[in-house]
Write a structure and sequence with these properties.
alpha+beta; Immunoglobulin-like; four-stranded mixed beta sheet; 5 helices; 15 strands; about 25% helix
Length: about 280
């Protein structure tokens, strides 16, 4: 049955105007990766049972485009280039909020003003010509919601660093914190009751400040220890997870290497740094 909720024929799998010929506009995510500080997403489009739109796409009269939204503020449209059926998206992670969630809206858009007629559209739209402007949609796929997995999923027990509050009246033996590196699952940082609350609040309000005051010294300490005695860490899951991504067992030969690796790891959005526990009295 024809649907006339569009002013001209639009190919849409759920509410379009090509039901009689059972045409479809399908899109899939064909590749996803995070590298070089960028999210990279590749989408492929396929037009089924609609040769007119397929010919227009191959001839450059229409273009495959994907509108990408990431709350609260990011929105951008990416277009196909060398391959008319493929859109490649690259986004610097610093442009995106900490949610790493995306909403993708694939469409086929007109490139220029045109007179459009499609004999495969449902009756009576198949008999009419339509004056269209540039960037009007001729096909639309349902929105695709996508979330990047964060790297803490590599750690079965949770995030990389555990902040542990010492029992009341106890203080760290080494100044403001004690760092435990021999736990199999996490780097554990023991802090006083007062500092525990301050750190937890800082992580909620301003993670960049926390990275400066806590993450840098903790991670530098851990990587320095790995540099000096890598064999002591090969059986620890948190160290092995870092090695799989950053090669920490082989790439730390100097203090300068440790500093550079600290920066690289802390710049990655794939590391979820903190979880919180309360240490009971022994």
């Amino acid at each position: 049955m024809a649907i006339f909720n569009n002013p001209y024929p639009i190919l849409n799998n759920s509410s379009g105007n090509f039901k009689d010929v059972e045409a479809e506009f399908n899109c899939i995510i064909s590749n996803v990766e995070f590298s070089e500080s960028k999210y990279k997403i590749e989408l492929r489009a396929e037009i089924i049972n609609e040769p007119i739109l397929e010919e227009m796409l191959n001839n450059g009269k229409i273009v495959f485009a994907v509108s990408l939204d990431s709350k609260p503020f990011y929105r951008k449209v990416f277009r196909s280039n060398n391959n008319p059926n493929t859109v490649k998206i690259e986004i610097d992670y610093r442009e995106i909020s900490s949610e790493f969630a995306f909403e993708l809206s694939p469409r086929l858009l007109t490139e220029t003003d045109m007179i459009y007629k499609n004999e495969n559209a449902d009756f009576p739209m198949c008999d009419y010509e339509f004056n269209l402007s540039a960037r009007q949609k001729l096909a639309e796929h349902d929105k695709i919601e996508f979330v990047f997995d964060r790297a803490y999923k590599l750690f079965d027990s949770g995030p990389l660093i555990t902040i542990s509050r010492l029992p009341n009246a106890q203080t760290p033996q080494n100044g403001t914190m004690d760092i435990k590196l021999d736990d199999p699952f996490n780097i554990i940082v023991f802090v006083s009751d007062k500092n525990y609350d301050l750190i937890k609040e800082m992580n909620r309000v301003n993670q960049k400040s926390l990275s400066t005051s806590l993450s840098i010294p903790v991670l530098y300490h851990a990587l320095s220890a790995i540099k000096d005695e890598p064999d002591n860490f090969r059986e620890l899951e948190w160290a092995e997870a870092l090695n799989q991504t950053y090669g920490v067992f082989e790439n730390l030969e100097s203090v300068d290497d440790v500093l550079k690796m600290t920066d690289i790891i802390l710049e990655s959005p794939l590391i979820d740094l903190y979880t919180y526990t309360i240490k009971t009295s022994d």
